[in-house]
Amino acid sequence: MTQPTFPRSGSEPPRVLFFSHEATLSGAPIALFHLACWLQDSGKRPVVAVPERGPISDLLQSRGIEVVIDAAFLADSSQGKLLEICAGFDVVVANTIASWAAVRAARAAGARAIWYLHETLVAIDLIGKISEIGPTLDHAHLLITPTQQTANVYRGLTRTAIEVVPYGIPEPVGFGKSDDTDRRLKFVALGSYEPRKGQDVLLEAIRRLAPEVRSVASFTMAGRVLDQSFFDTLTGLRAGLENVELASAVDHSGSLRLLADADVLVCASRDETMPISIIEAMSLGKVVVSTDVGGVSEWLHDRLNGFLAPREDPARLAKALSDCITDPARRSLCGAAARRTFAQHFTLEQFGSRFAAAIDLAANEPLTTSRPGAEQQYRDWIVLYDTPTAGDRIALVRQMRSLRNTPIISVLLPVYNPDLTLLVAAVDSVRQQSYQHLQLCIADDASTDPAIRPLLETLAAADERIRVTFRTTNGHISAASNSALELATGEWCALLDQDDALVEHAFAFVALEIAANPDARVIYSDEDKMDVEGVRSNPFFKTDWNPELFQGQNYINHLGVYHTALLRNVGGFREGFEGSQDYDLASRCCERLRREQVRHIPRILYHWRMAPGSLAEVPDAKPYAKEAARRALADHLQRCGIAGRVEPCPENTESHRVIYPVPEQKPLVTIIIPTRDRVALLQQCVQSIS
Question: Contact, 222 vs 188, CB < 8 A?
Answer without folding.
Answer: yes
